[in-house]
Amino acid sequence: VDRVEDATVDIAIVGAGFAGMYMLHRARGMGLRAVVFETGDGVGGTWHWNRYPGARCDVESMEYSYQFDEELQQDWSWSERFAAQPEILRYANHVADRFDLKRDIRFETKVTAAHFDDAAELWRVSTDKGDTVAATHLVMATGCLSSANVPHFEGMEEFGGDWYHTGRWPKDGVDFTGKRVAVIGTGSSAIQSIPVIARQAQHLTVFQRTPNYAVPAHNHPVDPEREAWFKANYSELREKAKQGRSGQLYSVRDVTWGSEPLETAKAEFARRWDLGGFSYLGAYIDLLVNKEGNDVAAEFVRDKIRETVKDPKTAELLCPTSVIGCKRLCVDTGYFETYNRDNVALVDISKAPIERLTERGLITGGREYDFDAIVFATGFDAMTGSLNRIDIRGRGGLPLVEKWEAGPRTYLGLTTVGFPNLFLITGPGSPSVLTNMLPTIEQHVDYVSDIIDHLRAHGQNTIEPEQDAEDAWVDHVNQIAGGTLYPSCNSWYLGANVPGKPRVFMPYPGFPAYVKKCQEIAASGYAGFRKG
Ligand code: NA7
């Protein structure tokens, strides 16, 4: 990789996942000079890093793809209803090669700082490779779940075995054959990897702090007839998906809780359980608002766990008690069944946290457990982690971390006062992680491209939100979230999983309402933005 010194570009893009790749493609289409910096040695972002066994998307593959190019979506074929990580990574590479993206991506190059130069009205970007690039626009395509949350246990360096984080999995994979393995955490990454690790390891112990809801994926090969139908109707289906609150096609019934007898409700939950995936939460339109309905939906899942897991004590420990859907619902393949295996044990650490690691393993509840390998499935410093880990400074040298000390503040989840021409793809305050990320990414990248086009057409250099607009947006997001059951549990949506992180509900619930707001703002000539 050649070092870039004192180069000037129109757009510097950070991250070569699906957001950064599409931003580069759009920038080129507008005739702009763009450069992408990527920490990894390949494209794919999330799918480059999360190579843990069993890693799979929880959105159906026919929907989890780009729609900006008709030929691309017609040419590509997915093998399974829910694609596994290697296939999604192949897709990312296919797109990168097809549009010749890699020549403008500087791999294995981490952006360390980005400072706004007030006088020159440029972003000065520097990397760990010594690049110094000046850019008119800075696009942070850094991902929502990309900064690993590795716990800081005492004794980590004493542990004699190997430890891994699911989001930083070794490229060559890990062979657990004959090994005594610990998995710490029971989020989506754990729920996907536990069944696979259990089949390989000599023994697996799962350390659970909070149990999680999971619905079955009912994964299967893509039926060629369904694929042909999908492809014949792709544009119509994509438009329909955008009307769904999470940008997906699964049906959300326009029926509120309480308007049907309990027996009908249970039959509907059963029907959706059999369909698999997120559709479970679409049984009633208000399941994330109405606690009574939510309780019934949750109890239905707990009953399934009790039916599946043979040991009643283990089953009870696996039963979550929080609001279902409050944390992103997990979509599993054989998770609960795994606890019926002789080589799998569950340890509840809700009351006695892990005290420390030792040379042989770890200590909790006054007991030492011996392991050859420990897997941290402990999640991410979500949504703000990757932004706050870069030294980003706006007007007057104000650090972004300082501005966001009490939690992130944005306008549309895209921009923030005092940081002109800084664009956050799927940033806090946008629907992002509550949706299918691919259409959400495309909507944001298209919006940013339109803004840049608008500035150029009007001979303007900079854009940033007005303070009033940002304050009103933050209030608006809080108000929407406050009307739901989302704030009721300790989720990463709230930053509750990272010690010391301010508690702010970060994503915007409701994709169609969000898109409408964006469109109205654009139509008004970008109300709420100051241009210069
Ligand atoms: P998650 O969903 O944040 O899950 C992390 C898990 O790790 C969760 O069960 C945590 O328990 C547990 N955890 C975190 N820190 C600790 C410590 N210190 N000790 C014990 N247990 C701990 O991350 P995932 O990677 O599984 O999934 C992230 C998203 O990726 C997911 O929602 C999908 O959208 C895809 P807690 O619940 O905090 O008590």
Automatic annotation (TrEMBL):
GO-annotated molecular function: monooxygenase activity
Entry keyword set: FAD, Flavoprotein, Monooxygenase, NADP, Oxidoreductase
Lineage top rank: taxon: Bacteria
InterPro entries: FAD-binding_Monooxygenases, FAD/NAD-bd_sf
UniProt cofactor(s): FAD
Entry keyword annotation includes Flavoprotein: yes
Family, per entry: Belongs to the FAD-binding monooxygenase family.
PANTHER family xref list: L-ORNITHINE N(5)-MONOOXYGENASE-RELATED
Designated name of the protein: Cyclohexanone monooxygenase
Natural source organism: Thalassobaculum litoreum DSM 18839
